[in-house]
Amino acid sequence: MSIIEIDKVTKHFSKEIHALKDISLTIEKGEMVALIGSSGSGKSTLMRHVSGLTLADKNSQSAIKVLSNSIQQGGKLDRNIRTSRAQIGNVFQQFNLVNRLSVLTNVMIGALSRTPSYRSLLGHFTTEEKHLALEALERVGLKNVVLKRASELSGGQQQRVAIARALMQKAEVILADEPIASLDPESSRLVMQTLKDINEKDGITVVVTLHQVDYAQKYCRRAVALKDGAIFYDGQIQHLNDDLLASLYGAQHTPEETSTELDMKDLNGILLAENGRINPKENHSLLN
Ligand SMILES: Nc1ncnc2c1ncn2[C@@H]1O[C@H](COP(=O)(O)OP(=O)(O)OP(=O)(O)O)[C@@H](O)[C@H]1O
How far apart are CA 285 and CA 273, in angstroms? Predict the structure, then answer.
């Protein structure tokens, strides 16, 4: 069963910036797919299209569906976007958690799409909701920090809280955009293992953008590689050989250099790209 259907998605940010070029892609239920490619290749833009946070070019043939529900078509957001979004758990660094709230409340916010908002705004969560949030936090190995403020957690812990929130939300799909971009190797391993665990045990479909090809190879079977906004490779990750990787990441690529070289270069790219993308209103619209 197809969970994500992306059809002919084209996006210009300006005349010069053609961020996505006729992307068509289908992701099946239960897959864990790595979205890879060098900085600026269009990974985040594609993820944001799937969440309906960015719209494709107007009057194009573009269409995106999640669980057969339309997210956007021809550059227009679907009317029932709230219902469609409820199926999608976002693990996006730029609007992950409400820092001043406790970890537990942040996870319970995951139930907002199913809860009358006056109740959740007043902080009136039911006992069942509290139990579900505790269970979700236990799943991601964070039961010991439930009453801490989100801002007190490490980056990796925050990512795992976002994953717990998606579990609480009963999301069928998790979109994780750069979930390990600024984490040390042990935290990265924990975040990736958590995603893999809920993918395998709960059958939740996961799409994760990664800079580090070695993590993609370790945790995902399928890779979709973008280059200059177009699909460069879509297939089993084990068939992505050094030649393909070299042409994906450019001439400087050698297998031994991948992690260190890309990390620094891409980190700068991410920070630059993120600067222009932080928009608290979008955070709010996701929660509602
Ligand atoms: N809001 C925006 N306005 C203008 N241009 C944008 C915007 N968001 C992204 N872009 C441009 O679109 C292209 C794709 O960017 P995107 O962030 O999707 O790439 P990426 O592969 O996720 O990169 P990174 O790995 O650095 O996060 C880049 O040229 C980027 O500068």
Answer: 21
Residue 37 CA: nearest ligand 1 atom is 21
Atom 27 of ligand 1: nearest residue by CA position = 270
Protein residue whose Cα sits closest to atom 4 of ligand 1: 13
List the domain range (segments joined by +) for residue 214: 2-287
Render pLDDT for 199-218 as a digit per residue (tens, 0 to 9).
999 999 999 999 989 999 99
Counted domains in the chain: 1
Cβ distance 250 to 61 under 8 Å? no
CATH number, residue 84: 3.40.50.300
Per-residue pLDDT tens over the stretch 17-37 = 999 999 999 999 999 999 999
pTM of the shown model: 0.84
ipTM of predicted assembly, 2 dp: 0.98
Q: Which of 213, 279, 273, 215 is nearest to 246 (CA)?
A: 213
